[in-house]
Amino acid sequence: MSTSTLTQSLGAPVTRLDGHAKVTGAAQYAYEYPVEGVVYVFPAVSTIARGRVTAVDAAAVLSRPGVLAVLDHTNAPRLKPGVDADLMVLQSPEVSYRGQIVAGVVATSLEAARRAAEALPISYEQEPHDVLLRDDDTVYTPETVNGMLPATFEVGDPDTALAAADVLVDARYTTPAEHAMPMEPHATLAVWDEERLTLYDSNQGPFAYGQLIAALFGIDASAVEVVAEYVGGGFGSKVLPRPSAVLAVQAARVVQRPVKIAMTRQQMFSLVTYRTPTIQRVRLGADREGRLTVVVHDSLSQSSRLKEYTENSTADAKLLYAAPNIRTVSRLSRLDVPTPGFFRAPGRTPGTFALESAMDELAYELGIDPVELRLRNEPTVDPGTGLEFSSRNLAACLREGAARFGWQHRDRAPRSRRDGRWLVGTGMASATHPVYIRASTAVARAEADGTFVVRVGATDIGTGARTAMAQVAADALGVPLERLRLEIGRASLGMAALAGGSMGTASWSWAVDKACRALVDKLGAYAGAVPEGGLEARADTAEDLEKQEALSRHAYGAQFVQLRVDTDTGEIRVDRMLGVFTAGRILNPRTARSQLVGAMTMGLSMALLEIGEPDPLFGDVVNHDLAGYHYAANADVPAIEAHWLEERDDRLNPVGGKGIGELGIVGTAAAVTNAFHHATGVRVRDLPLRIESARQALRRAPGENASALVR
């Protein structure tokens, strides 16, 4: 058998390898695995936002047909404390948020379990609660942002620079809670076999997931298999186990049978992590030529009483633009709410809305084109770290995007273009996302029949990662895709990075490429003849990552939007969205375009539609279903374009890819609201920009700043 280096599939628009299995129903998702003797658990959730459970009347439902058990804090299996406070399901009577799991009913059918759980009498001792984010005396600055970065950062003398700035913009921006609703809800099938546990689960990283579940239940990680071969979306909400999965494992241990659970959409608003609301203040100082002298970004977000999670919304204030004086502060308010968490481009999505809106405001105050202002503030090194960039082509994205969009024909004056009763405007914003690469392992195997198998503990959550990794393997082996089989989605396949933070494909492809090239070297010793038992090579990139030089590694983009506003009704219609990006080597243009367009559309949802409305009286999310929580659909964007520039970065990984899953959402919301200002002459700094806020804005005089300080 021989391999050929002439084979090249990387960079080709290969159709998704799993496409046929998905559209024909052959792909098995977590809830669909056939297991003998399966039963169902349905959670009973708290109807108060703070307090304690005083009684659970299990006897009232245990006599119902099909009901096998009722779990509550008095009889549920004990968990190891100190692993994750969010996952300490049924370990105490304390209630920390409305919708928290306070009991679970196990039954032989889903319907029986649900009816019994909804009828289960539960008594509470209620305490006063608070679910509204505001900047008051309970707010504090944590030591770190989620244990990774300092919560405060400062270079230079920002206060002196603010006082001395020729032009100053000082504005407050807010973003609401936003909820991830992947097509496949969070689902788990838990199967115990004595002390071994198998979880068929919808998640974004089976290896890390299994490690956490093992620690929680006090068993060896090698005794936990997690299967996530097909996952119907995640957006960050499936990075960590959720309480529903823990309940399924507990229930399976109690009844000694396989147990299934799938969250309802309503339950996902409380049991799934979400993007926290933010209150942000951005201050930009510049000289008359438009060069920034100071950037100060303060962000306030919320977390639960259970766990400290801080949204890193100020990250790009110390990266995107050159300024000698920078200060960022991340502050936190602990409320009686579920714990927020990762949601597509966490921190950067709300943070760039504020920063890029402020940059647009500064451009107008200076009388400088918004694209030109950004070009004048291009840094030569990372402003926050002083590190050299591995590559940085934001300026090229800005120029190419402006040319493709026809930006040069734009009248800079707001409210200068009409189409009947519609005001028409255009806006833009910069985008960036860090390149995260984490250690991963892979195995490449040659079979005697001339085929190859590559195994990696990755998860394809719908991005096309399975196809891209197969392309990497085929090129490294020098064989066509038809001779290759890729196995993913199991914890037992070894350590692998999460499918989150845009790190997945960039991390896995390194391990896959390394394993395949090692196999080719081994085959050379056999003159291409594979031994009867096959031949394999293993790879681990941990040492390779340790040897990498310290550089600032990021992907970049520029977002452009045209919209129109009905002066009678306040209706907003987006006519066109265009993004130009640089993200290293694009492994598969078909799946890459899908990711970028999808992310841009999600950014449009953030700008115009998405908001989880908190109920201060009951502590719930008022619109906790898809009838009341709205997303953008195809009809909301008549024309959407995603382009990228060729970029070679040899200081990333052997494949040269940066990751693109989150880049497309960053900056989109700011481009939309900046276009609204250009159309109407009025600034709106609070998302989402809905019809009612547009109508209020239109009643203000053009040019009215509404709460911003401009000097």
Automatic annotation (TrEMBL):
Keywords: Molybdenum, Oxidoreductase. Residues 24-128 form the Aldehyde oxidase/xanthine dehydrogenase a/b hammerhead domain. It holds the Pfam family MoCoBD_1. The keyword Coiled coil does not apply. One of its GO terms (molecular function) is oxidoreductase activity. The keyword Oxidoreductase applies. This is Oxidoreductase. It comes from Streptomyces sulfonofaciens.
